[in-house]
Design goal:
two-stranded antiparallel ribbon; 14% helix; 118 residues; 2 helices; globular; alpha+beta
Length: 118
């Protein structure tokens, strides 16, 4: 691409496009707050849904696998540093995944089934 003197904006565009192979050698690796996850959901009473997210390709941890989770999406990019991940309504995914190996919708934040987009 460019041997020297690429603008910061151009380097950021390459990173966002997933073109690490095209980054110039002087472009230092940067921490990426996006994480690939698999998204599961299950129906709850009151016509609501709970979502469970796990790092992509990882199994649901044993303490959560005794429920009937339905895989909804695989390899979804989320911002793991977000306080709340929409449309799954999962709070602090980085903290939850670090603590339990998964992140889950809180009871108070369950999604109405008729308004669910995923």
């Amino acid at each position: 691409m460019c041997s020297s003197g690429c603008s910061v904006a151009f380097v950021d565009e390459l990173r966002l496009a997933g073109r690490q192979d095209a980054l110039p050698s002087y472009a230092a690796p940067r921490y990426d707050d996006r994480m690939n996850v698999d998204v599961f959901r299950r129906p709850e009473s009151g016509n609501k849904l709970t979502y469970l997210i796990v790092p992509a390709g990882k199994p649901i941890p044993p303490e959560a696998e005794n429920f009937d989770w339905e895989l909804r999406q695989s390899g979804v990019h989320i911002d793991e540093t977000a306080n709340l991940v929409h449309p799954y309504e999962v709070e602090r995914p980085r903290d939850q995944i670090a603590e339990k190996g998964y992140a889950i919708t809180r009871l108070a934040d369950q999604v109405k089934a008729d308004g669910a987009s995923v």
